[in-house]
Fold Maltokinase.
Amino acid sequence: MPKAAPPRTTGLPATRLLTSLAPLLHEWLPRQRWFAGKGRPVTDFVLLTATELLPGFLHLLVRAEHAPLALPADAAPVPADCYQLLIGVRDQLPPRLAPALIGRATQGPLAGRTVYDALQDPQSAALLLERLRTPGSVGPLSFEHDPQVTIPPGLAPRLLGVEQSNSSLVYGDTFILKVFRRVQPGVNPDLELPWALARQGCARVPAPAAWFRTSEPEEATLGVLQPFLRGADDGWTLALASLAQDRPFTRQAFELGQATAEVHLALADAFPPVTLGRPQTAAIAAAMTERLDATAQAVPALAPHVSGLRAAFEAVAALDSAGTAQRVHGDLHLGQALRPADGSWSVIDFEGEPARPLAERRRPQPPVRDVAGMLRSFDYASCTARPPNPQWAKECRAAYCDGYAARAGSDPRDAAELLRAYETDKAVYEVLYEARHRPDWLPVPMAAVRRLAGA
Ligand SMILES: Nc1ncnc2c1ncn2[C@@H]1O[C@H](COP(=O)(O)OP(=O)(O)O)[C@@H](O)[C@H]1O
Ligand SMILES: O=P(O)(O)O[C@H]1O[C@H](CO)[C@@H](O[C@H]2O[C@H](CO)[C@@H](O)[C@H](O)[C@H]2O)[C@H](O)[C@H]1O
């Protein structure tokens, strides 16, 4: 088990390190599931920070610069994304680490050496946990933990093999560390909200046990460790099983509605809600319309439905008030809910929609936004079932809203215009998400678009 080494940053000049790494990253980075710039060629890399955690184990923050796309929607300057990379450097890669290979450097200070994804190396992964166990700083990186929580030494790491927007390591089935891949300045809501919820005594969310952050080039959260919910299945898996076995899911959907309401109530206690009057309803509608227009330019299949979809946003613009806005989950779907066989729902992944700027994700929003996200998810599940089962989705959607109303004291369906607009906005987001990440799935949100535009 590697021990945390005394702090030191790499002595290698940043520009020279990039001479070795840039040619490899050009090949490797766009292939990663968490690479956000799909379809936008990388023109250049800028090394923002390089920290040596151990000899041959580097922590890097790298900015990927993009060329503007030919598509009109992307003709505006394309924002550069900053990625967190944990890089291993060895003379030879042992066969067990072959899948982690990034490439063999041919130039610069690492010429002739093999570079690989260190999160796939159990030794490096173990060192990361060791750092979190023993708080302190290494260069711009700070490692911190909740003093109330004991993190035992020597927990065996394994990299989670699931499709995700970040990379997660499970330690001894006791803790899970999410390493954020796309880093934006500021506190990440996936640390901020679960921490606040834990302080409110909300048991629906695994409480952060430890985290690490950088102070350079700007303050940003880099990773969060939380208890691993052993033996839990996510709602997506459970929903698909229910569809495959033709079993009802309404009880689970009702309880999920209750769990969502509890999270919302605790968030409203932790972060004061604000009232939404006419200027705000107009602003919400304008932002949704803007996203719709931009998406229709990027994904031509959406274009014929734009005027039909706009009606939902115009109905919101016409509202004099829309209740309150508060901190919400921001990307709630069945995959973000976990449930042990004999337990109750927990909610994870408070990062919000990864494609949106952090400042936007941290803004108060109407809670029906989360409800709309989950309603879309029931629709997704029913569409991927063979044969598709719209009746299943209808019953789950109703049960989920019933459960929410029972716990929150207000029924999200009463805010009909807002709910419809958020469902439409989510379907539009999904069209872009699927077009960029999983083109085979595009028919699922497109079916919802046709329905929402035509009704
Ligand atoms: N506390 C936890 N306990 C058990 N499994 C978890 C926990 N947190 C996350 N997971 C698993 O890790 C997966 C990825 O986590 P998530 O927070 O959704 O990452 P991402 O933001 O990268 O998509 C989830 O789908 C879930 O299966
Ligand atoms: O879980 P993430 O934070 O990475 O969220 C992104 O990926 C999700 C897919 O993994 C995507 O969710 C969409 O597909 C789900 C089924 O795979 C479905 O349940 C959701 O309703 C649907 O939105 C999510 O939108 C995206 O942000």
User: Anything to note?
Assistant: The first strand starts at residue 42 and ends at 54. Residues 416-437 form the longest helix (22 residues). Residues 1-9, 72-76 have pLDDT under 50 and may be disordered. Residues 358 and 445 are 24 Å apart (CA to CA).
